[in-house]
């Protein structure tokens, strides 16, 4: 997600186009999917710190998706 944030800033300033922004999006999305699968594999956990960290990452990914949707760039395949 950090890499996407760097690209988001460059895109918003007109320094890069959709191709590079989409690459950053794809990397963040792939990583998030892998992390979510690992988290699901843990099963229900009573670890509040882990749950809080996961919820924060979900919120970060939601914001990332909102920005990418607003960019009007085509989704990577």
Notes on the structure:
It is a single chain. By secondary structure, the protein is an all-alpha fold. It has one domain. The protein is 78% helix and 0% strand. The chain has three helices and no strands. It has helices at 2-12, 18-42, 48-71. Helix 1 packs antiparallel against helix 2 and helix 2 (18-42) packs antiparallel against helix 3 (48-71). The radius of gyration is 14 Å and the shape is elongated.
Order of helices and strands: HHH
- Summed up, the helix count is 3
Number of strands: 0
Largest sheet report: none
Q: Average the pLDDT over all residues and give the rounded result.
A: 92
The low-confidence parts are: none
Question: What's the structural domain tally?
Answer: 1
Rg (C-alpha, Å): 14 Å
Strand content: under 5%
| Straight-line N-to-C gap | 18 Å
How would you sum up the global shape? elongated
Helix proportion: over 70%
Structural class label: mainly alpha
């Amino acid at each position: 997600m950090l890499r996407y944030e760097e690209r988001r800033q460059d895109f918003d300033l007109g320094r890069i186009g959709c191709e590079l922004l989409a690459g950053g999006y794809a990397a963040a999305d792939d990583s998030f999917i892998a992390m979510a699968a690992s988290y699901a594999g843990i099963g229900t956990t009573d670890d509040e710190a882990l749950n809080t960290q996961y919820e924060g990452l979900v919120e970060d990914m939601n914001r990332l998706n909102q920005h990418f949707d607003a960019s009007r760039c085509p989704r990577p395949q």
